[in-house]
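## retry 2 of 3
previous attempt timed out at serialization; input unchanged, resubmitting
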Amino acid sequence: MVAPPPSPKLRADQHLLVIVAACSAVDPVGAAEPATATGIDAKTCGLVPVFAMNSGLLVTGHRRATYLPSNKGRYVARAFARGEAAGLEAPTTGRRRSRGLGCQRGRVRSAQG
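## retry succeeded, writing output
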């Protein structure tokens, strides 16, 4: 089940601010951290993480009700740091890369050679 996008309690522009604040975090965040960064009520900020997790921008943190930015979320946050236009384009311009897991063009390389 996919969480609904912005609700009547949180406008789309505010929703975006909370997502960027959460994706810019270095430490695990709950609702209070993005609320402090954006000036939006913490109770309202608590609506955003489920949508961001379903979008692949956040993953669950180590403690209950905390979240960490995923690689995709960090990429989007870095793009927003360059400017709003770059940030809005980021989800469609990101590339998937192999990170040295021994895969090369769909084939698995042996560990010995």
